[in-house]
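Hey L., structure's done. Input below.
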Amino acid sequence: MDIDAWVWWLIGAVALGIPLVLTAMPELGMLSVGAVAGAVTAGLGGDTVLQVVVFAAVSVALIAVVRPVAARQRAQGPKLATGVEALKGRTAVVVERVDGSGGRIKLAGEIWSARALDTAQSYEAGHEVDVVEIDGATAIVM
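Output:
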């Protein structure tokens, strides 16, 4: 029994896809897609040299284009600020006079201890302030 070339390419694609799942190496997935392109070429009647050229061209193109894009995305990190980082830049309302030595604000529905960024500045109750930093459990405001 003679197996068509496209079947061998699909077997190769699956063989590259299994380690992709086990190791999470995206390059293996790109090679697997190249093998599928080789299978399509074989299914359309392309000779062996053309199949290998298509496999190599698709694989190299994917690695050259997709890999740098993925690396940039990974380096940027998450775009959604959470936790303390999400509180920076928010507006709060002074509940108890805030100056360089302390005070209280209402920030995101909770009462926080706060102190003024400029130690000479003070903010009275009811005044809106901007949170510039969180230092432990104290909001630094201006």
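The chain has two domains: 5-76, 84-141. The radius of gyration is 29 Å.

-- N.
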